[in-house]
Amino acid sequence: MNTLFASFETITGLPEIISYTFFFLLGAAIGSFLNVVIYRIPNEESIVFPNSACPTCGKSIKPYDNIPIFSWLLLGGKCRSCHRPISARYPAVELLTALLFTVIFWQIGFTAFLPVCLIFSAAVVALIFIDAEHMILPNVITYPLLGFALLVRLIYPLLFGASFFSDFKIFPLNVLHEYPVWLVSLVGAILGGLIGGGSLWLVGEIWKRLRGVDAMGLGDVKMMFGVGALLGWQLTLLSIFLGAFSGAIIGVFLISRQKDKDMQTQIPFGIFLGIGSIISLLFGEHLVNWYLSMFV
Ligand SMILES: [Zn+2]
Q1: Ligand 1 centroid from CA 60, angstroms
Q2: How many angstroms is it from 266 CA to the middle of ligand 1?
Q3: How many angstroms is it from 86 CA to the middle of ligand 1?
Q4: Which of 132, 141, 211, 280 lies 20 to 30 A from 163 at CA?
Q5: How far is the CA of 61 from the centre of ligand 1 (A)?
Q6: What are the b/e assignments for 221-252, b being 16+ CB within 10 Å?
């Protein structure tokens, strides 16, 4: 993925630390916007109007009290008007997105693929937190994510070549030399989508037939169609593996703490698939190469 890498310093002549600070601050600002998305989308409210307001007293938040991370700390986690606590989730999402954007810049560098990774990760962060709170992955995010992935897979190879997509190097895309690059890319996207969304759908169907319960939400299926379309089949399998692995560990932990052992524990699997997808996007190729070098 780093084949088109150009350092920020060589392009702009500014020290690298400025670019890291920039992406940290950009992440904090985007995190602040994601808070609005996470709070309003499940309630089917507009994400543009009105301005942010205190969830308790409804008083609108002044711009100087809306500085990411900083304002929450300065106000001691309380609303300036009603002094009731404001959830630590708000600064947490801002800090997480800030750190994530910094890591993305560190990994992807100043390349054409950078905005794709930033947009993809921001959407996945919103999905993770909405799933954690409401156990849903809204269509208004998963459908545009799929559309975005398909568009990138169509346009990027034409403009920048195939170097950003690791599935071009592996079967079946690596044998499709005589076809146009955009077509090969779309085949990779569809294959990735089917591996991501299709495999989850199949597992859910089998589980439903066997146990009579809905184990897999359609939201997870739709999200993984988008993830799969962007990442290709190999990194998508890795995303599901990482998601299932971390989800199983957390799940066992939650069930062991549960008093009523017969109760069905619902785990918002989208959280773990989301985490797996971001790790896979940023470090997937390294992980796969490391794994292959160990065992093959
Ligand atoms: Zn208030």
Answers
A1: 8
A2: 33
A3: 8
A4: 141
A5: 9
A6: bbbbbbbbbbbbbbbbbbbbebbbebbeeebe
How far from each other are the two terminal CA atoms of the chain, in whole angstroms?
22
Compute the distance between CA of residue 15 and CA of residue 159 in angstroms, rounded to an integer: 29
Note down pLDDT in tens along the chain; length 296 residues: 444 556 667 777 777 889 999 999 999 999 999 999 999 999 888 887 778 888 889 898 888 888 999 999 999 999 999 999 999 999 999 999 999 999 999 999 989 999 999 999 999 999 999 999 999 999 999 999 999 999 999 999 999 988 889 898 888 988 888 888 999 999 999 999 999 999 999 988 888 888 877 767 789 999 999 999 999 999 999 999 999 888 888 878 877 777 665 555 567 889 999 999 999 999 998 898 888 888 86
Please give the Cα distance from 105 to 20 (Å, whole number): 7
Q: What is the pTM (predicted TM-score) of this model?
A: 0.90
Centre of ligand 1 from the C-alpha of residue 65, in Å: 12
Residue 60 is which amino acid?
S
Q: What is the distance between the alpha carbons of residues 270 and 229, in angstroms, rounded to a whole number?
A: 17
Contact at 8 Å (CB) between 274 and 125? Answer: yes
* Residues 6 or more apart whose Cβ sits within 8 Å of residue 172: 187, 191
